Amino acid sequence: MNGQSAGIALQRTHKIGIVGAGGIVKAAHLPAYRAAGFEVSAIYGRETHRATTLAAEFGIPNVCHSLDEMLRDPSLEVIDIAVPPEAQSQALRQAVTHGKHLLCQKPLARTAAEAELLVEAAEAASVKLAVNVSMRWAPAMRETTDLIRQGAIGDVTSALFDVKYYENWDTWPWLPRSDRLLVLFDMIHILNVTRTIVGQPGSLQARYGRAQDSEVAGETWADIRLNYGNNVFVRFDEDSRIPSAQTCVRFQFNGSRGSIAGTLGVYYDYPLGRADTIKLVPSAVNESMIPGRKLPGRWAPDAFSKTMRALFAAIENDSVPPNSGRDHLETLRLIDSIYAAGRLEILPHKPGKDSR
Ligand SMILES: NC(=O)c1ccc[n+]([C@@H]2O[C@H](COP(=O)([O-])OP(=O)(O)OC[C@H]3O[C@@H](n4cnc5c(N)ncnc54)[C@H](O)[C@@H]3O)[C@@H](O)[C@H]2O)c1
Hints:
Oligomer: single chain
Mean pLDDT: 95
Low-confidence stretches: 1-5
Bound molecules: nicotinamide-adenine-dinucleotide
Largest sheet: 9 strands, mixed
Radius of gyration: 20 Å
Shape: globular
């Protein structure tokens, strides 16, 4: 992972046009860009009144009434798309014909095959396509990745993400009907980070499902194990329907010389959450003897200027951003394999650890 690129100094201003005026634009994109000094010159939203409200709050000079109107503005270099996948693919196809570089939302599309067509469209138009895999730049994930790259725990032997929280999926009116839910829209982040650290697994096991009386179509829990050979594995155990008071989020990477353990604050109170924590535990030291250290910054909004900065740097250097569309295809291929390895289990409750 490119922890360093997050701090790269830019040589010039890149004007941004934002497509979408929803929750994540308000809570993360715009506050992050304001703090980073990025210039957002135009916004377009399907509901113009929302775009107008955000434009007033964040000092955006131009509210466009159509995507075409935005794309015809030659001063805009980057289009930042933050709409659901179905709407995103249409916007992307339109934007590349105007030669705009793109920061798209995760997931780039519902499947790797659909996303590959979009990556090919961007490549054919010679524009940069980056994906907002923001958790890669969340404080705890950035530090974990840097420590592992520096050899702080030796070779990774296993890892665990244990994520129990409450998500009100109705917050996103377009999501409850999606047959792919938790893995595609939430776990995608930790799967993507894991892939950047330990690569694509050789095999995997997956179970996923939802409660019988659930009002959403897709899975709300998933239990996944990625196998890397020689008994190296990563386990993800996530349930998004736990009462908020019982939220518990921890991750741990174990290596030949020690381990890194921490928490991801965003799950405590989405989207602002708490500070992430981390601790580096040498082998032979009891984990409980080492206190967790709170990390500065938050996933939202801080990580969101880093994903955009990585794209700006790639434009300036004519290089491939670490969060490129093509890299994202690998994460979507992993997600396709996870869905193919199981079937939606409709049970009264998520099965306990022993039954899985
Ligand atoms: N990178 C991240 O960490 C992160 C975090 C949250 C959300 N997201 C992604 O960002 C996207 C938007 O999420 P959100 O939380 O802002 O959702 P939201 O529901 O709050 O907002 C969605 C926006 O898309 C617009 N929209 C919906 N359907 C549309 C359509 N058919 N055509 C045009 N516009 C349409 C809505 O008008 C609204 O402006 C989603 O793809 C989501 O997965 C990414």
